[in-house]
Specification:
Elements: H1 2-5, E1 9-10, H2 16-27, E2 37-38, H3 42-50, H4 60-68, H5 96-108
Parallel strand pairs: 1-2
C-alpha cells in the first residue's frame, strides 16, 4: 500500500518501468498515486532521487554505484518480484551480432520468455 500511495519520480506513460510498476500494483488491487514528477530519462530520475526530490523505482543495475556509495537506499518490496519485458527491434534480417545477442538474452532471461 505504501508504494501505491507514494508520489514517485516516473517516466512517461507507456514506458517499460512505469508500465511494470503499474501492472504490479494493479495485480495487488492498487492504483499508482499521481507522480511527484514525470521525467524524460532514467538518468534524470536517478539524479532527482539522489537529490532527495522523491523516491523512484529503478533497475538495480542503473543505481548499483549509488547504492554502494550510500547515495541511494534500496527499499525491498513485499510480494512477487518486478519483472520487466524488453524488446529488441532491427531492420531486415538480424546480423550475426544481433543473433548472438538474442542467444545470450534467451539463455539468461527469467523464465526463458523470449519471443521471436
Amino acid at each position: 500500500d505504501e508504494l501505491a500511495e507514494t508520489p514517485l519520480l516516473l517516466r512517461e506513460e507507456g514506458s517499460g518501468t512505469r508500465a511494470t510498476v503499474e501492472a504490479w500494483l494493479d495485480d495487488a488491487g492498487l492504483t499508482l498515486a499521481p507522480p511527484a514528477a514525470v521525467l524524460e530519462t532514467t538518468g534524470i530520475i536517478r539524479a532527482n532521487a539522489r537529490a532527495g526530490i522523491a523516491p523512484a523505482v529503478m533497475s538495480l543495475r542503473t543505481v548499483d554505484t549509488d547504492l554502494a556509495d550510500g547515495a541511494l537506499v534500496r527499499v525491498p518490496l513485499l510480494g512477487p518480484p518486478l519483472i520487466r519485458s524488453l524488446r529488441a527491434i532491427w531492420s531486415g534480417h538480424p546480423r550475426p551480432a544481433v543473433t548472438a545477442f538474442l542467444d545470450t538474452a534467451r539463455s539468461s532471461s527469467v523464465g526463458g520468455q523470449i519471443s521471436p
